[in-house]
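I have been asked to look over a protein record a colleague put together. Thanks in advance; the entry in question is below.
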Amino acid sequence: MLIPLNNEFLAAPWNTAFMLYDNIDDVLEFYYELLKIGMETHIPKRTINKRKKDKPWMTGYIICRHLLLLRNRLNGAFNKCLRLEVKQ
C-alpha cells in the first residue's frame, strides 16, 4: 500500500509550483492538492457506524472498536498475570 503512494509522490511535479505561482499561498495550495489527490487515491476510507449502545461521547472520530477490544483483551491478560514484578 505504501509503495504506490510513495511512487506517486516521487513522480509528482513538486518544482512546477514555483514556476506557475508567485504567491506562496498558491504554492501551498498546489502542494496541498497534490497530497490530497495521492491520499484519496491510495489510502482507503472506512465508514464507522455509531451503535445505539455507544456512549454519547463516542463520536465517529474516536470509535475504533478494534482498538477498544485490543485494550480490553490486554487489560484482561494483565489482570490474570500471576507475576508480581510485572504488576508493580
About this structure: The mean pLDDT is 81. Residues 2-42 form one domain.
